[in-house]
């Protein structure tokens, strides 16, 4: 009976993580398209089409430019790579290739003092905070996670 509860628990987490990924990736992609379009079309025309104001279009384009995917990369963060993979935008091979070569922030050293056994929080860009989170949320399977681990440089 406990196994069924764990599976059901993981299913809602995965559904929610996938829905969140769809929303986040769509918002990022939408902003990037707006930023591209306003290079060619006046912001007032874009605002009229989107039924918003020019100021919002300007802010959206500026934010997209600030958060642009660096040249040669498929995403802004390792977590976004996992999101795009879970949404079917990347093949498994490409996801493993990208995540195994990502420049992760180092995890804090273990604190072995007897009186302070609480682990230090993981930096936002660490392997565990990105790939580990994606696995915990069901965006990456155990096999996907292991494949990335196996492909990491030693």
Q: Tell me the series of helices and strands, N- to C-terminal.
A: HHHHHHH
Helix content: 55-70%
Number of helices: 7
What is the approximate shape? elongated
Strand element count: 0
Q: Any low-confidence stretches, pLDDT <50, length ≥5? A: none
Radius of gyration: 19 Å
The count of domains is 2
If you average the pLDDT, what whole number results?
89
Would you give an account of this structure?
The protein is mainly alpha-helical and 154 residues long. It has 2 domains: 1-68, no CATH class; 70-154, no CATH class. It is built from 7 helices and no strands. Helix 1 crosses helix 3, helix 1 (2-37) crosses helix 4 (78-86) and helix 2 crosses helix 3. The longest helix has 36 residues, at 2-37. It is elongated and about 55 Å long. The model has no long low-confidence stretch (mean pLDDT 89).
Task: Provide the fold topology.
Elements: H1 2-37, H2 43-50, H3 54-66, H4 78-86, H5 92-100, H6 127-136, H7 142-151
């Amino acid at each position: 009976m406990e196994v069924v509860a764990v599976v059901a628990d993981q299913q809602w987490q995965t559904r929610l993580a996938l829905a969140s990924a769809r929303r986040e990736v769509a918002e990022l992609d939408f902003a990037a398209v707006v930023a591209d379009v306003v290079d060619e079309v006046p912001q007032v025309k874009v605002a009229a089409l989107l039924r918003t104001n020019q100021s919002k279009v300007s802010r959206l384009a500026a934010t997209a430019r600030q958060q642009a995917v660096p040249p040669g990369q498929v995403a802004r963060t390792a977590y976004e790579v996992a999101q795009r993979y879970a949404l079917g935008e990347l093949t498994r091979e490409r996801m493993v290739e990208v995540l195994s070569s990502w420049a992760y922030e180092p995890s804090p050293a273990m604190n072995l003092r007897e009186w302070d056994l609480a682990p230090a929080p993981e930096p936002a860009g660490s392997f565990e905070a990105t790939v580990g989170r994606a696995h915990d949320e069901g965006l990456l399977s155990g096999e996907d996670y292991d494949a990335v681990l196996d492909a990491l440089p030693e």
